[in-house]
Amino acid sequence: MFSGSLVAIVTPMGLDGSVDFDAWTRLLDFHLSNGTSGIVVGGTTGESATLRDSELRELTVRACSQARRRIPVIVGAGTSSTAGTVERVGWLSELPVDALLIVTPAYNRPTQEGLYQHFAATAAAARKPVILYNVPSRTAVDMLPVTVGRLSQLHGIVSVKEAVAEPGRVRELVAACRKDFVVLSGDDATARQAVQAGARGVISVTANVAPRAMANMVAAGLRGDHAAAEELDAPLVALHRELFVEANPIPAKWALARMGMMGDGIRLPLTPLSAACQPALLAALRGAGALQ
Question: Is 116 marked active-site?
Fold first, then answer.
């Protein structure tokens, strides 16, 4: 179920910070029409840290209704509190989602044993499949392959999104985990290499603005045509870089606004893309064919 190019979708907003549900419909249609393999609602790119539970619920319900089981819908459910995460996965499990994405707790920096117990408690409470999410650059804690391997043996934990940008890490995870456990890349710049190393796809930021190109690149890699994957990835290299020139999702939201998909809304403490960064991102969008 979880393979290919899945999008860590942005949450479109008005200038007042309110969620723009009309733009949400447009974005979902954009992905349903352009080969995206799954929608991740309320992840980092969706400004999860500033979404209210009521907003997350409404975004998720609408995404499930629009997708109509054509592609999986995954919802971000992680918090820095085990009790809070258990509570959240409880009510999210009642929605018609396909999986729950649980990020490692940010700021409190648990040990590897603490991470294991956090995810074990979360999986025990969840009534949907759980995808682990390791992103040390955001959370200040790195969940090591040996810990993921232990967790892969627990019922309900089916996958990991790994944002450590090293293909060697993917190989370690594949070796450490049970055979049917799915490793997904969480880093666009190395996603092609991650697939070659054994990942089954990517949860992508770049797919927000270039969904068809990302879908084609990952598909080539999954069928073992690594030369074609490299050729398809080449026009995206600058885009992978420039979409992180400021904190994600600042550049992605600016790009989508330029593409006419949504407005310029973003929530504090994030601010709009600085003028100095705009020309390079504009050039990258044009180079990738995402903007004329």
Answer: no
